[in-house]
From TrEMBL:
Keywords: ATP-binding, Cytoplasm, Kinase, Nucleotide-binding, Pyrimidine biosynthesis, Transferase. This is Uridylate kinase. Residues 9-218 form the Aspartate/glutamate/uridylate kinase domain. The gene is pyrH. InterPro entries: AceGlu_kinase-like_sf, Asp/Glu/Uridylate_kinase, Uridylate_kinase, Uridylate_kinase_bac. It catalyses: UMP + ATP = UDP + ADP. Its main location: cytoplasm. One of its GO terms (molecular function) is UMP kinase activity. Pathway: Pyrimidine metabolism; CTP biosynthesis via de novo pathway; UDP from UMP (UMPK route): step 1/1. ATP binds at K14, L15, S16, G17, G57, R61, T164, Y170, D173. Homohexamer.
Amino acid sequence: MSESTSPYKRILLKLSGEALMGEGKYGIHPPTLTRIAEEIAELSQAGIELAVVIGGGNIFRGVAGATEGMDRASADYMGMLATCINSMAMQDALEKQGLKTRVQSAIKMEQIAEPYIRRRAVRHLEKGRVVIFAAGTGNPYFTTDTAASLRAMEINAQVILKATKVDGVYNADPKKDPTARRYRTLTYMDVLKQNLNVMDSTAISLCMDNKLPIIVFDLGTRGNIHRAVMGQQGEFGTVVGATETVWA
């Protein structure tokens, strides 16, 4: 893929921690991690500037811990540390593909990651390095979806690619409801009004205020990251941030 064929120069890829599990129930599945790294490498080598935010749900989820009686702030900080583990794993996988990378953490841990500094992150991207943002926003009560939206705007990304286990946004759970329909495009307001499971409301509101589009697609199909970057996402995913809501 040549640089001129993509409508995007700089993107932020949001991965859930569960995306790294493969078919497992927890942890990191090395073949899945390698496949994702290979797809990211193809884009980076084509001149696309890439930043990545990874959740921590495959290791620990703060909200789940809080529902079991843990202090919410403590549980959220544990979740942030889980994202750091995933970020280091992704860094290792990307560097095995020959890429230059940097992990920037919102929580200081100098031995394994740089502190998050916006100007430094932008400079890394300009030099062709893949930047992985770890530890969310560094604050409890905020999700990694919100962190992805915030970082995307700070680095002036043109789009957020939200990789999931479903091929877009549906009006119902397609695994439970055979009549569920996929949206081809969605407005921000329809996502909020219908409480659709795209990102949390804080993340959607941030994107709406700054007119930052979100492309939701299935990470399980190899090549979908490439297709989304090429502008083909309407064929298999959902674009949030359109001027009107359209069914697929």
